[in-house]
Amino acid sequence: MEKMTMENMVSYSKQYGFIFQGSEIYGGLANTWDYGPLGSRLKNNIKDAWRKRFIQERNNAYELDADILMHPRVWEASGHVDSFADPLTDCRHCKTRHRADNLVNDYTNSSIGDKMSNEELINYIRENNIPCPKCGKCDFTDIRQFKLMFETYRGVTKDNKSVVYLRPENAQGEYVNFLNVQRSMRAKLPFSIGQIGKAFRNEITPGNFTFRTIEFEQMEYQTFCKEGNDQEQYEYFKEYGKKFYMDLGLPAEKLRFHDHEKLAFYAKAACDIEYLFPFGWGEINGTHNRTNYDLTRHQEYSGESMMYLDPVTNEKYIPYIVESTYGLDRTVLAVLFESYQKETLADGTEREVMKFIPYLAPYKAAVFPLIKKNHAEKATTIYNELSKYFMTTYDETGNIGKRYRRQDAIGTPFCITIDDETINNNTVTIRNRDTMEQITLPLDEVKDYILKRIQF
Ligand code: GAP
User: Fold this and answer.
1) Ligand 1: which residue has its CA nearest to atom 18?
2) Residue 217 Cα, ligand 1 centroid: separation in angstroms?
3) pLDDT tens for residues 391-439?
4) Domain spanning 363-453 has what CATH number?
């Protein structure tokens, strides 16, 4: 069984319609990627799985769909305007740009760079002669803070007053709507607001395919609770997050917690869930105990009360927030890597197969007429019926073996062959992607047979 390199995954994703380079015909725009027909299905299935676990199956959890553009004061209150920036340095020799903290971390194979000031970083780089990853020289400029928020302007004039930002995280939409949701839903603490949506960061460092992009999607979950209940919620969501990833098919041994040593000054605890990508461990989720910092800041900056009135005790207080954020694009990437397998079969031939859990598979079933001339009409009727219930594809070209291979390569869990038996006896053959076993089933049982096996 062979696994895949990052480079091969980029071409596999393109070949089978999962992910394409953004603006490819113009030479591409760095760190942008477009999801193709199968990639967008996979991504939507992951969103649906998240919605199911985080909204549908949790009492007192509500979904929100806030605007990307928010009042600029939001980003002053959140601290992003002042401090959401990377420490960058340029190599004078080859003109490439690097994050100074990454240079130190990679050189020392640690995270000591995270704790250093800009001056400490550049001194450390120069004293230790840390080489440029591109050209090997150590000739770096002083460090500049490079702002990560994308700015745009609204109105006719391009002055400071009309600046608006593309949101760099979803969370603030949930914070500023905390009381709207609480009151309209008559929610009692602890309750959660979840949101799936785009975020934008002007990342300049190389991306590892879709791992680090400038436009990406987050599935964010904010749990509002009373002080004192916060650490319990924090521990709960760390584990709940790991379990969610395991339910998506990522094995425990390729997931780990990375507890943060360096915390934001307001945070009480922070932890990432990391997945073992081909390039090493990479963060796919972040869970933070943010205390009552965010709501306190919004109260201060907006002048509006962010107090919760406890209906039982009549206490008034600003809730604590435990945040758990799932990077959607990184989850798609982890699922792609985890699902891919190259197998040598008993007869010595090889097959490439995407072993998605059935719920995530872009197509749940493929319908094949054995012989186009004789069976296409019946197969089309069956395709039309099944596609009302789940994503189904139809293929009438090439021999059956080749058609199976094509569906294996895109991860379709069930292939249904229509032949003379279907015409005469109303039975079909269903072939299982993983075991490659075939069974015969009465036609009227097919829909339920598949529906039962694609649940999450
Ligand atoms: N509201 C909290 C927040 O945004 P974060 O750790 O900055 O926290 C959360 O981001 C998650 O978003 C990360 O764990 C990662 O999965 C994803 N993410 C962050 N930056 C990204 C980028 N440039 N490209 C793709 N995904 C990214």
Assistant:
1) 327
2) 8
3) 999 999 999 999 999 999 999 999 999 999 999 999 999 999 999 999 9
4) 3.40.50.800
